[in-house]
Amino acid sequence: MVDKIFLGLLIFIPVTLFLRYLHASSLMVFFLAALAIVPLAKYIGEATEELSIYTGPAWGGFLNATFGNATELLIGIFAIRAGLVDVVKASITGSIIGNLLLVTGTAMLVGGWRHKKQEFNRTGSLAASSTLLLAVIALVVPAIFLQTAPDIGVKIIDELSIFVSIFMLIVYGASLFFTLYTHKHLYTEDVGKYEAKWSRVKSIFILLFSTLAVAWMSEILVSSIEPVVASFGWTELFIGVIFIAIIGNAAEHTSAIITAMKNRMDLSLQVSIGSATQIAMFVAPFLVLVSLFFKTQMSLVFNVFELAAILLSILIVNLVVSDGESNWLEGVQLLMAYAIIAVAFFFHP
């Protein structure tokens, strides 16, 4: 039944393209493009879950985070090209807290409701969480630097952002080497008990096709943001942190829930926490470097409220995963934390 619903939602892809060709209302095109991305994200998540049966949870989680975050990365590139740097930063913030609180929380709630207690590798989860704490340091330092040296030129801030971005990418590469090679034993599970529904070739084909389609829909979505701001009075901060972040995280959300329901919490956390890590340590610094090729350059200076939301999200997730097991109550706690932050961003000017 659920598969038929997602299959039916694919109709929004040609409908979005048709209405855009007819120069229909930008507001209508924006929401139709968002709806079109949802089923595509679901198929990205399902394809990477199928591939994880062939490759194991470490590579499966990495593939899901990478292709799931392709939406976020592409939206970011198109937004920078359009000069919407604040939207990009907000979507990065939203993706980090969304993956940590909304995605992980929903997965723990749904999985914990079916299984009284779910266990996962504590060391592997904490390794990802400590990398996220390093990301906070990398994001906080430029902001503090600007606060303590307000007369410094924009050029210095941009140069600092470039250096910090390079260091972040180095650490992200090291974390991948840790996960996929030197300590891959921390992320193993008995994949033999899971039967693949798709062949390896079919999974790769669906993954690539869905990612390309998401890229197309993302470009349309970004081009329609400004009319939405004007029509609803939403701030670019709220649109980036909540709306675009949720759309961008649709793949991870779907995969994390499905795998948690199957009691595959190692893979589920590899998807959610791994995706947040990739956003912070790869997507954000990569977009800083990509922005050098556009008219508007992006820095790593986030506002204080965004940084506080990221830090608090990381701290509560670290506490939840510290014992190597989860239940539905912890899922509810993470979801309530997300709801509190989301409401605050809605009222934030």
Question: Could you explain how this protein is built, in words?
Answer:
By secondary structure, this protein is an all-alpha fold. It has one domain (2-190, 198-347): A middle domain of Talin 1. The chain contains 14 helices and two strands. The protein has helices spanning 2-9, 12-21, 26-55, 57-81, 85-114, 122-148, 154-182, 200-223, 225-232, 236-248, 250-261, 265-290, 304-321, 328-347; strands at residues 118-119, 325-326. α11 (250-261) runs antiparallel to α12 (265-290).
Order of SSEs, N→C? HHHHHEHHHHHHHHEH
What class would the helix/strand composition place it in? mainly alpha
Biggest beta sheet summary: 2 strands, antiparallel
How large, in whole angstroms, is the Cα Rg?
Answer: 19 Å
Tell me the strand order in the biggest sheet. 1-2
Core attributes:
mainly alpha; 14 helices; A middle domain of Talin 1; 1% strand; two-stranded antiparallel ribbon; 2 strands; 80% helix; 349 residues; single chain
Spell out the blueprint of helices and strands.
Elements: H1 2-9, H2 12-21, H3 26-55, H4 57-81, H5 85-114, E1 118-119, H6 122-148, H7 154-182, H8 200-223, H9 225-232, H10 236-248, H11 250-261, H12 265-290, H13 304-321, E2 325-326, H14 328-347
Antiparallel strand pairs: 1-2
Helix pairs in contact: 2-3, 3-4, 3-8, 3-11, 4-5, 4-8, 4-10, 4-11, 4-12, 5-10, 5-11, 5-12, 5-13, 5-14, 6-7, 6-12, 6-13, 7-12, 11-12, 13-14
